[in-house]
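Mods, move this if it's the wrong board.
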Amino acid sequence: MKVSKWSERLFGTPLFEPLVAFSYIFPLLYLIVFLIVPVLSMLLIAFTYDGNISLHWFKSILMDSYYIQLPPRGDFAQKLTTSTGESLYLIRGLDFGVVLNSLVVAALVTLFTAILGTVFAFVMARYNFKGKNFFRIALFIPLLVTPFVNAYVIKQMFSEFGLINYIFHEVLHILPFRIKIDGLAGVVLAQSMAYYPIVYLNAYASFINIDPTLEEQAENLGSKGFHLFRTVTFPLALPGIAAGATLVFIFSLEDLAAPIVFHGDPLAKKLMSYQIFSKFIYGLGERSPEIAALSIIMLTLAVIAFLGIRKYVSLRQYAMLSKGGRWKPRVSDPKPWQALLIYLVLLPALLITIFPQLGVIMLAFSERWTTTVLPQGFTIDYIKEMILNPDVRRFIVNSLIYSGAAVILIVLLSITSSYATSRFKGVLSPILESIVILPIAVPGIVVAMGYFYFFSAVTPENSPLNPTSLYGFNPALVLILAYSIRRLPFAARSVYAACSRFMYP
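Not the wrong board. Structure tokens:
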């Protein structure tokens, strides 16, 4: 009797079932040990000063003008002269200090990707036009990111002698001067071009899932055109758009590739992700309280954004529900002027945003790319090196093995957690559901720092899991654990949706 009572209370089953217990306990323990405890170990370091609990490190960061600078310093854009005597406008951004710079960059990237992703999603969801299948495929291309190389290609595109200046200044003569985008502006540009498909996918799903009868009722009441979109369609799709925008905000905060590529401009270095990385590298991996405190500040910002949007979506989601039945999304043929506008907006935007992926391919078969419009000199030497060099082959094999092992863990964790939370409603169900989604809100670099602090503290000095061991450390298991934690929520939500549809208590 006692067993059945606590079994029903914890797991939602009147009789103790080992499979159900395992489905709860395995993902819970896994996430507690390999996510929550590492973050807590970093918290302990960040809040410790001279052996006592203290806010010293947070005060030193937040009161330092290097981290918080108001009013901002510098000029958003500067007028310069190129080596050929032409006018050049260098766009860098303003310096608000490391913490505020990160917030400003993340906010701007979120805004730009939300606009671009929403426009693309609405057009693709509501209109039939020639070439739609091409656009549908092309919109997924920016998701095929090779982070550092993509950012480098974008930097070359918007350099003073790059492709954008060649087209709009030299050929079309639309720009009377050259432009160069660098510093924080370059980071915003690179991240926006990489992340807008995330908003697009969420917004597209929202638009096609809107019950058409809601819009039809609004039309019967006299609402049409942009007024209909503003008052009915957009508010109904907003939870999905906001969810995608929140992911972009977190990804922007944690991104390291763009700041490293643009770090030739000192302003690009003044971002939290770059500061955490560079201070850790220059400190030779020491357990720095300042790095821990900066990581906690980044984590706090990400968690606030995540929890805020989750609360908002939960309050607004009811508006998407229907009283049963399926519907066909509202799709129409655009008028001639609408079709022209679609092509004039979508085609240039898509060509610019997919060029980095094409540039990566061209760069792989080129000798160099410095101050020219496109890469110079055809060569297959780098491809040969990739195939023939045993070190490079080992890197590729390692990547495949680590990713494959992480996928196996992700699938196991997703199935067990989704089975438990969708089929049974014990006390542990909401706890497990929340913890499974939590990795979305934890920036990757925070996970990395937490793992370093955690494994260096709890494993023996010469253990293969101890990152401070110069000769004994083997990062394979740590990387697999980190990959599985970071990507778990995306798989878990899909499995949960399937379980909710096909499994019933």
